[in-house]
Amino acid sequence: MSAEAGTGRLVAGRYAVDGVLGRGGMGVVWSATDRVLGRTVALKEVDFPAHLSTEERDALRRRTLREARVAARFEHPCATSVYDVVEEDGRPWLVMERVDARSLQEVVHQHGPLPWATVARIGLDVLGALEAAHTAGIVHRDVKPANVLVGRDCTAHLTDFGIAVTTDDPSITTTGAIIGSPSYMAPERARGEDAGPAADLWSLGATLYTAVEGRLAFERGEPMSTLYAVVTDDPAPVERAGPLEPVLRGLLTKDPAARMDVPAARAALQRALAGSAPGATWTPPDAGDAPPRDAGATLGGGVERFDADDLRALASLLGTVARDARDQARHLAERHRERKERRAARAAAPPSRATPSRATPSGAAAPDAAPRAAAPATPPRAPAPAPPRSPAPSPAPAPARTRRRRFKRRWVVVPVVLVAIAVLAALAGLAALVAAALGAL
Question: What residue spans carry the Pro residues bias annotation (predicted)?
Answer without folding.
Answer: 377-398
